[in-house]
Design brief:
Length: 232
């Protein structure tokens, strides 16, 4: 183990790989002896600065960080929206509900598949945002007609949210992936129309958020909570 004087000399004149190893030994020797100061060479300080610069460039070179991912995939039905569309195209008007479920491989435990049972939601799905006008008997008759419908919603969603550090003063939030919804409508147990299939269902959104806005929001939230606590 080198002495304290040798360590000081080596650290000040750090040149080669061998001296770098000695420098490490010196550091350990100083710690073992309870040293409070170590003279670091200009070469070592330069390496630290280069490392810090490298980390900065990595951080702000457009690197993306995944933040969250929302997945609703009817695995028994399809592994992709395109596969789901291909199955829906096989359905024909007049098919019975059991036949449709068997063709789609829909089960009670299939994720992303639900039946719309709320009357208002059914009405909005079938007729849009309309207001019913009529006598009580007519309204009751319409509700009976509505109850004979069974609407099955099939959803395929795989949305990834991320952050892209492409600027020292802002970050880019991204949202990408498929978000597909189809409705299969039955009346008195039979398919009455072709399932709805959106033409465009892939999302690719980006929003730039400035760091100054983030700090401003945090300050406003913190100030609001502080005022609320004082009021209480």
């Amino acid at each position: 183990m080198p002495t304290g004087d040798e360590c000081r000399l080596i650290i000040k004149n750090l040149r080669s790989h061998q001296e770098y190893v000695w420098h490490t030994r010196c550091w350990i020797a100083f710690i073992e002896k309870g040293a409070t100061e170590v003279v670091v060479s200009d070469l070592f300080a330069g390496r630290v600065m280069r490392l810090a610069l490298l980390l900065f460039l990595v951080l702000f070179a457009g690197c993306g960080i995944p933040v969250s991912r929302t997945m609703i995939i009817p695995k028994d039905v399809a592994q992709s929206p395109e596969q789901l569309i291909a199955k829906l195209d096989l359905l024909k008007t007049g098919m019975e509900m059991g036949e449709v479920f068997e063709l789609l491989d829909v089960k009670r435990t299939t994720p992303g598949v639900r039946e719309i049972v709320n009357a208002e939601e059914k009405q909005r799905m079938l007729y849009g945002a309309t207001q019913l006008v009529g006598s009580p008997q007519e309204l009751e008759q319409f509700r009976g007609h509505l109850s004979k419908h069974r609407i099955i919603e099939i959803r395929f969603r795989d949305i990834a949210n991320g952050l892209v550090f492409d600027s020292p003063v802002s970050v880019l939030t991204t949202k990408t992936g498929p978000d597909f919804i189809s409705y299969v409508v039955f009346y008195e147990g039979r398919l009455i129309t072709s399932p709805s299939k959106p033409n465009s269902f892939y999302q690719e959104e980006s929003t730039r958020v400035y760091i100054s806005d983030l700090f401003g929001t945090l300050f406003r939230v913190g100030a609001g909570r502080g005022v609320g606590q004082i009021g209480n």
